[in-house]
Amino acid sequence: MSSTAAPIPFAGSTLGRYPYLCAFFSSPQDEYDATIDGGPPPGAAHGADVDEQGHGTASEQRLYHLIRQPAPIADRQFEIEFLDPGVEVFVFTFG
């Protein structure tokens, strides 16, 4: 993996170029919106649990597939906005 950007610190590790982003939600019926690079919805980069407009709903305790970045893989900034109070997220996974 090569990159000219500085590594991004996250939970004692660093993030680089990963095509997938998943999260484990514990709260039922929580809605969220996801964006990439601070702008438009993910479109073709949406995961199985997010629509092309970036909207998703956590309906049970499980791992949710948020982003699937198509080629070419590049460094990106992912943002998630939780639309309901009290959301519990235990882990984000990249790979």
List key phrases describing it.
43% strand; mainly beta; 95 residues; 3-stranded antiparallel sheet
SSE blueprint:
Elements: E1 8-10, E2 13-15, E3 20-25, E4 30-36, E5 55-58, E6 62-68, E7 78-82, E8 89-94
Antiparallel strand pairs: 1-2, 3-6, 3-8, 4-5, 4-7
Write up this protein.
With 95 residues, the chain is mainly beta. It has a domain at 28-76. It contains no helices and 8 strands. A hairpin with a 2-residue loop joins strand 1 and strand 2 (13-15). The two termini are 13 Å apart. The mean pLDDT is 77.
Oligomer: single chain
Structural class: mainly beta
**Beta strand count:** 8
Give the terminus-to-terminus CA distance. 13 Å
Helicity, in percent? under 10%
List low-pLDDT spans: none
Radius of gyration from the alpha-carbon trace, in angstroms: 13 Å
In short:
Helix content is 0%, strand content 43%.
